[in-house]
Design a protein that fits this description.
Number of strands: 7
Largest sheet: 7 strands, mixed
Helix content: 25-40%
Distance between the termini: 11 Å
Shape: elongated
Length: about 190
């Protein structure tokens, strides 16, 4: 029996690397969708909407494949922090996060059209930032490009400067709770389509 196709509906190199670290090698086919990114949205609902939108769009094109859609955002004080518009916006976001706890939300949707399957879950992680001076932020920016990251940071880079502590799994904060996803994907790929 042939193993069904497994597609990651994302161009995110971090998500691909996390899956590969857990022994999965998805095909990469980014979804052609416009994500909902209203900062006043409920973060849990926003990631659900976006992850499902991505998975459904790619599953519609490849109905014989198991498709993974995911979306991650950062929220503090019930406000979603999307990717910053520029460095000034990034600096303002880091000042808002400085010395405080926030939540990372990752929505995951698995869709397999021909198998009549669509599953969703949301993983959350708490992250506490160090108190950041202007010099700390400048030093962080010298090591990390904050402009391509929701919530202005990636835990895999410059962690020693900005982060005091965080909940596991760290993979969720990176953009995909890979341990949980890998277990479920393996279960689904073993069943007949």
């Amino acid at each position: 029996m042939n193993t069904p196709r497994f597609i990651l509906a994302s161009a995110s190199p971090r998500r691909r690397e996390l899956l590969e670290k857990h022994g999965l090698s998805p095909e990469i086919i980014p979804a052609g969708v416009i994500e909902h990114e209203d900062p006043n949205s409920c973060p849990r609902e926003m990631v659900r909407h976006n992850a499902t939108l991505k998975a459904r769009e790619v599953a519609g094109r490849f109905p014989d494949a198991l498709v993974l859609g995911a979306d991650t955002t950062v929220a503090i004080d019930d406000v979603v922090l999307n990717k910053p518009a520029d460095l000034a916006d990034a600096r303002a976001m880091l000042k808002k996060l400085s010395g405080r706890e926030h939540t990372v939300f990752t929505g995951v949707c698995l869709a397999w059209k021909n198998a009549g399957l669509e599953e969703y879950f949301c993983e959350t992680s708490r992250v506490v930032f160090n108190r950041l001076s202007d010099n700390d932020i400048t030093r962080y920016f010298s090591r990390v490009n904050p402009l391509d990251k929701a919530g202005v940071y990636g835990i895999q880079e410059g962690r020693d400067i900005i982060i005091a502590r965080f909940d596991e799994p760290v993979s969720n904060i990176m953009g995909l709770p890979a341990e949980r996803v890998a277990v479920r994907v393996r279960e689904l790929l073993k069943r007949p389509a």
